Amino acid sequence: MSPLFPALTGDAPADRPALRFGDRALTYAELAAATGALADRIRGGGRVAVWATPALETAVAVVAALRAGVAAVPLNPKSGEKELGHILADSAPTLVLAAPGDELPSPLGDLARVDVDVYATGDPAPAEDAGDEDPALVVYTSGTTGPPKGAVIPRRALATTLDALADAWQWTGDDVLVHGLPLFHVHGLVLGILGPLRRGGSVRHLGRFSTEGVARELAGGATMLFGVPTMYHRIAESLPEDPELAKALGRARLLVSGSAALPVHDHERIAAATGRRVIERYGMTETLMNTSVRADGEPRAGTVGVPLPGVELRLVEEDGTPVASYDGETVGEIQVRGPNLFSEYLNRPDATAAAFTADGWFRTGDMAVRDPDGYVRIVGRKATDLIKSGGYKIGAGEIENALLEHPGVREAAVTGEPDADLGERVVAWIVPSDPQSPPDTEELADHVAARLAPHKRPRTVRFLDALPRNDMGKIMKRALKHD
């Protein structure tokens, strides 16, 4: 196959900036030499673990593994010892790549360690003898039940997803991306590091997200920002008091949000202050990217756009039959098919088989509606966000967006709880804007009913100081327990 990173073999100017983390940076020539040297050290072995801190060493390690034709297993530095032990036993890496000086926890103690030298010099163009279907990454998904499963992502999926995003976002080697995302998952690592390198562009990683860092980099020539809703919410909160941030965001060519739904309220606040619309895309560990609002399309708040080139997408009823018509109202489970899909769950043929239909469609578990013109709007997860109340199928996501438009609501999550009459009742979990004067249940119910429909109004409201979230800012609904 063609190389994953043509820019490392002469397709980009040698002195073009490739990666920058704080005050440490590598040009394409330096990155080619460093990854070439490391690739020579690890070529021919089995899988390699990568201690995936938000640092230059992580990017060099993963790129070197890909250039060596070796599958990389990114490890979340915040994982507990039990989870790390499971991942290491399951993936059986031959060694771990880490930054010099990083202290590794005890589960990694018996594993051979190679320190990553980001300034090493080696063959800048090592042969990539791996095939399209060979594993590139094994990324562990945080399942809601049982230990994490290792999704085996082939090189084919990386290439096709990143090229499809280049088409959708008009992404070129002239783009400079800024982000502060972790590097142990698809968003931060594949889109945020490998994406720019495949295009021959540049990445400026903030190390840790801050609105000050975003403003500085966008004012200093960065053209794209990737973030998760928590980051954009902080941006929206800061904009009224920070005209420099608004000006910097207004200069960006593309603002992209992913990993969870961005509330419509935050969309509107950012657009009003900056003149720029955030676009959303939709993907998963197992599928990489499926859909996106296109750079040349309508940035419709609350949607994740249209299927990317090469991706087939359909909505199905509970019995597996395709939804009859796309009317913007009928809820169905998203199923996808295409070259962007993972190969298997490592060592889990049972789980792999269960994830696919007989004709090759992947069951995402995500519920959505689709407009007649093809735009997709996610309404929640099948397991936690589909509420069956009074004979209706209701997606929690649209109720959450409606609640967030109420001035008395700072954060909102919606779940379903058993109800003798309705089957399930809609429950709203609210972080109020003013804890001393929260809105009452009737006020919130009327607010939702007026915007959506009476059967979607919350019947119960519970107030919290904060919603439980994971590292990606996703609300952990299983931690929201009813009495």
TrEMBL record:
The AMP-binding enzyme C-terminal domain covers: 398-474
| Source organism, top-level taxon | Bacteria
Asked whether the UniProt record includes Flavoprotein among its keywords, one would answer: no
Give the AMP-dependent synthetase/ligase domain ranges. 13-346
Enumerate the CDD domains for this protein: MCS (cd05941)
Name the protein family. Answer: Belongs to the ATP-dependent AMP-binding enzyme family.
Protein name in UniProt: Long-chain-fatty-acid--CoA ligase
